[in-house]
């Protein structure tokens, strides 16, 4: 479950609801590409924008259409009571694991975040992945807190923010965390431009936005890193540099949703308002980047 | 509506739901103190943590128990579709105005935020207050964007973050914004420690957390500033310095919820988990601060 490529697909939607046929097509695309796991209802899957019933339905569709690929389901919400309900729903839908970010409106304290994971893990029968994403949660985990939470039952993985592009710094960061968590806990990297660097630095897996739409391009990077071909993994990632530049400028979600629209894999709009996919010159530029990279 | 003291009460709650009798007592306390308006379901009222039906019920209770005091109701949510539903509910409940923050999970662009206000104001029949709170929304309004949004129909107020403690800087900040918005749009200050400074700098009103639990203490500051007694307003605010220090350290919500618990105006717990009120030494310290300030 927590090794190799964890592909995070978009949940295509509009103001009327989730576009279920489009979502199923994306899941089938990932299953037939042979990704190692699927992360449904991650940030790229716009989990916080959906109602509980919609999230249950999306989790069910992901599991039903993923073939043998294990599916992890995002269960984050502002309130503990909602997280517990969503965890039950995800398990009922057949999720192989759940992903939990400490979503906040009021800035949370470390003790509150520990209390959240403590209460939720007590209710779980499937593995949990700690979702460390300060860009959306505005909570900064200390390594010490990661170490405490990683001792809780059912915790099996940590999804960390991008590692440094400096090889020694990246390796030191992963090793520092590794020393603080039980050996059963996998460490995976996110931030697509840091996928190759994270895997080369010793991460077990890559939680990938690009992998949710372009699984082959992401698998080339992952398989190279897994084979010990660090340079080749970096070369494959650097080839996608024009895409990473757009991710950094507009956010991965807007870029990947626009790409799905351009590929005809999702209708436009595919994002929950007020969020919009790219428009005008940015949209045209993305189209030519995809063409140059032979991703269309 | 948008002048003087706008008092923001807690919505006392626990994992089972909203403590409606406690909320009604808080509203009655504000109405009998003679605050100028009540901001129900603001950040202090934990609006994003409640379900739609709970928010409708809280809005109704606020309006029904506020006597002649006008009630503004928070309608923020991640999705435009939910904001529009909440706006309808608030109007149905009899709100005199609505308060809208650009709540985010994915960081929003200026165009997306403008689009949000444009779509919502089109559906409104009551005034709207723009809620500029980068600490919780992680969106930074430019003055230019405020100016554009302020032109939209129904926009009648802006709730700005704390002004500088430097008198000239505070006045310059309010005047810069004032020049960009129509004269029908009131400018109010938040951040309780900046209440007196904001009013003295020319703000029309103070959106106050402390005023939601200790209306008399807040009214003393407001009435002094309104009478042109700038020094007296500052003196009254500085007297509450030990409370402002706690607000800065623990967040206004945790401090005021703990104070309500200590006063017996709310049961413990009164906040939505994972958020907790103060514990241990911090709780004891708050108790002695309240006693010293003769607020108990």
From TrEMBL, chains A, B:
InterPro entries, A to Z: Aldolase_TIM, DapA-like
Residues at the catalytic site: 131 (proton donor/acceptor), 159 (schiff-base intermediate with substrate)
Pfam families in the cross-refs: DHDPS (PF00701)
Tagged with keyword Lyase: yes
UniProt KW Lyase keyword: yes
Keyword vocabulary terms for this entry: Lyase
Single GO MF descriptor: 4-hydroxy-tetrahydrodipicolinate synthase activity
Signal peptide region: none
Xref: SMART domains: DHDPS
SUPFAM superfamilies reported for this sequence: Aldolase
Cellular-component GO terms for this entry: cytosol
Stored Gene3D superfamilies: Aldolase class I (3.20.20.70)
Binding positions (pyruvate): 44
Family: Belongs to the DapA family.
Protein name per its UniProtKB record: 4-hydroxy-tetrahydrodipicolinate synthase
């Amino acid at each position: 479950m927590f090794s190799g490529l964890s592909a995070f697909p978009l949940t295509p939607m509009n103001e009327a609801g989730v576009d279920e046929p489009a979502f199923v097509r994306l899941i089938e695309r990932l299953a037939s590409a042979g990704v190692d796991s699927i992360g449904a209802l991650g940030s790229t899957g716009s989990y916080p924008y959906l109602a509980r019933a919609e999230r249950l339905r999306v989790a069910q569709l992901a599991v039903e259409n993923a073939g043998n690929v294990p599916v992890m389901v995002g269960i984050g919400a502002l309130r503990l009571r909602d997280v517990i309900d969503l965890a039950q729903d995800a398990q009922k839908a057949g999720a192989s694991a759940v992903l939990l970010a400490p979503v906040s409106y009021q800035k949370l304290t470390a003790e509150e975040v520990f209390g959240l994971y403590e209460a939720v893990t007590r209710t779980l029968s499937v593995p949990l992945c700690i979702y460390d994403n300060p860009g959306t949660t505005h909570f900064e985990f200390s390594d010490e807190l990661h170490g405490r939470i990683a001792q809780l039952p059912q915790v099996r993985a940590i999804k960390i923010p991008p590692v440094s592009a400096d090889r020694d710094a990246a390796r030191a960061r992963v090793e520092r965390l590794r020393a603080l968590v039980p050996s059963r806990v996998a460490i995976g990297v996110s931030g697509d431009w840091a996928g190759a660097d994270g895997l080369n630095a010793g991460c077990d897996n890559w939680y990938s936005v690009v992998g949710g739409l372009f699984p082959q391009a992401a698998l080339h990077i992952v398989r190279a890193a897994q084979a010990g071909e660090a340079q080749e993994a970096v070369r494959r990632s650097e080839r996608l540099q024009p895409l990473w530049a757009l991710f950094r400028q507009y956010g991965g979600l807007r870029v990947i949703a626009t790409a799905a629209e351009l590929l005809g894999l999702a209708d436009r709009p595919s994002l929950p308002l007020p969020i919009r996919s790219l428009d005008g010159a940015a949209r045209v530029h993305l189209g030519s980047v995809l063409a140059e990279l032979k991703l269309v």
